[in-house]
Write a structure and sequence with these properties.
- InterPro entries: AraC_XylS_family_regulators (IPR050204), DUF6597 (IPR046532), HTH_AraC (IPR018060), HTH_AraC-typ_CS (IPR018062).
- Keywords: DNA-binding, Transcription, Transcription regulation.
- With 221 residues, the protein is an alpha+beta fold.
- It has 10 helices and 8 strands.
- It has a 6-stranded antiparallel beta sheet. A two-stranded antiparallel sheet has the order 3-6.
- Strand 4 and strand 5 form a beta hairpin.
């Protein structure tokens, strides 16, 4: 079972689940709590499929581009990875935080408190980039609108999101398409409304990013 709610940290989401299933790329990174461990889920470029016995996980999902400032690590170093927080921060500090979360009445609240204490203000340019790309704006036009050259935008995107703006746009487009198709919009209309060349283009992107056909993905959801 999976549940989520808005976090007290702006733009973030708190979630709990059993750790099983297919996690799709979303442009985000997560701080995770699981059986006494603190971990970080880096930005995915393809579906992350979990296996093994189910158990309770709690996570704080940062808004796109905001986790690296909290972690002090560029997102591209964690691309398609799950790592122990102790691999990124001093072990003594992580031990203190683990004890703090373990002693809390609600691990989710403890994760939020930690994030609120350390989070940096959102970067207005990156926030504008995500908003524009999520609305289907072209990457080149968006770069011009926020006043960044192509190379500078690519460098900043690697640090913030783990990949370039074209990959981010592709992932956000997939999320829009899944929302429409999941609401019953025909696949061909979904493709047209989300900016795919045609339904076959949508099908290819779903297979590449999610690892399964669109119909199977929706049925599993």
């Amino acid at each position: 079972m999976y549940t989520e709610r808005p976090s007290r940290l702006a733009g973030a989401v708190i979630w709990t689940g059993d750790g099983s299933g297919r996690v799709l790329p979303d442009g985000c990174m997560d701080l995770l709590w699981h059986e006494g461990r603190l971990l970080v889920a880096g930005p995915d470029t393809r579906a992350y499929v979990t296996a093994g016995a189910s158990s309770t996980w709690t996570g704080l999902r940062f808004s796109p581009g905001s986790a690296p400032a909290f972690l002090g690590v560029p997102a591209h170093e964690l691309r398609d990875r799950r790592v122990e927080l102790a691999d990124l921060w001093p072990l003594s500090e992580v031990r203190r935080l683990r004890s703090r979360v373990a002693a809390a009445a609600a691990p989710a609240t403890a994760l939020e408190d930690i994030a609120l204490e350390r989070a940096a203000p959102p970067d207005p340019a990156l926030r504008a980039l995500v908003t524009a790309l999520d609305a289907g704006r072209p990457v080149a036009a968006t770069a011009d609108e926020i006043g960044l050259g192509a190379r500078q935008l690519h460098r900043r995107s690697l640090v913030a999101f783990g990949y370039g703006p074209k990959t981010l746009a592709r992932i956000l487009r997939l999320r829009r398409a899944l929302a429409l198709a999941g609401a019953g919009v025909p696949f061909a209309e979904t493709a047209a409304r989300c900016g795919f060349a045609d339904q076959a283009h949508l099908a290819r992107d779903v297979r590449e990013l999610a690892g399964v056909p669109l119909g199977r993905l929706l049925a599993a959801g």
